[in-house]
Write a structure and sequence with these properties.
357 residues, Metallo-beta-lactamase, Chain A, seven-stranded mixed β-sheet, 14 strands, 42% helix, binds zinc ion
């Protein structure tokens, strides 16, 4: 039922049975109009309790179901068709992958919000009656782990959530809250109610996790998309979840990453795993994913390196990148190309410069 409190909330937000106490609210109004500063107000336990009550009861609306698709014998994916968050897609911009094992479900990246995580849980429950027994977070960008909140709420705070130590540090630090609030802003508050739930189990390169007769192996070969990108191989299925080190049809954020590191990472990962079905965090899985995205990245980096070696300016490098067939061939169809390519050419040029001198 709509009441006065709810009608003041942003459009996308639905209040879940908020029944605040009017005398308390009137008291708050009086305090506010009497000229008390925000800091002074916040110091009052009464105000803090009310703020917490509101936060507990206000949640963005549920995300509509996306029926999962089966990728291999044990692996399924809740596919995000969009590459970037909007009010319309409620933040559903990254895939949620899950592995059905004899002992329960293992989730590879938990989604972009509490609501996306809740939708993924509904989809998992349609696929199996077994509970979720573990979650892996590939890296610290919030579209891959903000859904942890839903899984911890449903399966308990002790549900193992694995990530590399650097990823855990970032999520517990500034990145965690920054991603939570940015996601709210990008989605016009549709993800409100999502809390930061950091991974609680550090993992490291080379570790294997048996779940009955299904074995998961984790890989990390240095900086690629971020300094701590975890890839998870589902050994029996010849399938590896690579998250954001390669994308299908979206240009990847490389602000915290490295071109040269990405090429090295691909090589080491392919050497360790052999032919795989590569599953990205954004877009569709394919056996040719690393080759295709690697070619695109090389089409950006190599002309920049050449320009740096010849002493050419960044503008010359930009022109060379944009006319490189590996880049030009994808410009029209790649999500985020126009808005990001300039910045990513600059980053490639800077990285080439750093390595050249
Ligand atoms: Zn990312």
């Amino acid at each position: 039922m709509a009441n006065k409190t709810q009608s003041n909330l942003p459009g996308a937000v639905a209040a879940k049975g908020f029944t605040g106490n009017w005398s308390r609210r009137r008291w708050l109004q009086c305090a506010m109009t009497s000229g008390m500063g925000t800091a002074a107000l916040w110091a009052l336990p009464e105000v803090r309790a009310l703020a917490e009550q509101v936060r507990d009861f206000v949640e963005g609306p549920p995300v509509p179901d996306v029926p999962p698709v089966q990728l291999s014998e044990h692996v399924w994916m809740v596919y995000a068709k969009d590459g970037f968050p909007t009010a319309e897609n409620q933040g559903l911009m990254a895939n949620v992958v899950f592995v059905l094992t004899p002992v329960g479900v293992v989730v590879l990246d938990s989604g972009c919000s509490l609501q996306v995580g809740q939708m993924a849980i509904r989809m998992i429950k349609k696929t199996t009656s077994k509970p979720v027994v573990a979650v892996f977070n590939s890296h610290y960008h919030g579209d891959h782990w903000l859904g942890n909140h839903a899984f911890a709420a449903e399966y308990g705070k002790d549900l193992p959530i694995y990530a590399l130590p650097h990823t855990i540090e970032q999520i517990k630090g500034v990145e965690g809250n920054m991603w939570r609030s940015m996601m709210e802003r990008w989605t016009n508050q549709a993800t409100v109610g999502t809390q930061v739930v950091a991974p609680n189990r550090p993992t490291e390169h080379g570790k294997t996790y048996p779940f009955g007769d299904v074995t998961l192996k984790v890989h990390h070969y240095g900086r690629a998309h971020t300094p701590s990108d975890l890839c998870v191989q589902v050994v029996q299925d010849k399938l590896t979840y690579v998250a954001d080190i390669a994308m299908d049809n979206r240009i990847a954020n490389i602000d915290d990453g490295s071109y040269v590191g990405t090429f090295k990472y691909y090589q080491a990962l392919q050497q360790a795993t052999g032919e795989q079905l590569w599953v990205p965090g954004h877009g569709r899985a394919s056996k040719g994913l690393l080759k295709a995205y690697g070619d695109f990245m090389a089409g950006i980096y190599e002309p920049c390196l050449k320009a740096v070696e010849k002493g050419d300016s960044i503008d010359v490098a930009k022109a060379a990148v944009l006319s490189d067939p590996r880049v030009a061939g994808r410009a029209k169809t790649m999500d985020g190309f126009d808005s990001n390519i300039g910045k990513y050419i600059s980053l490639a040029y800077l990285e080439a410069e750093k390595l050249a001198f």
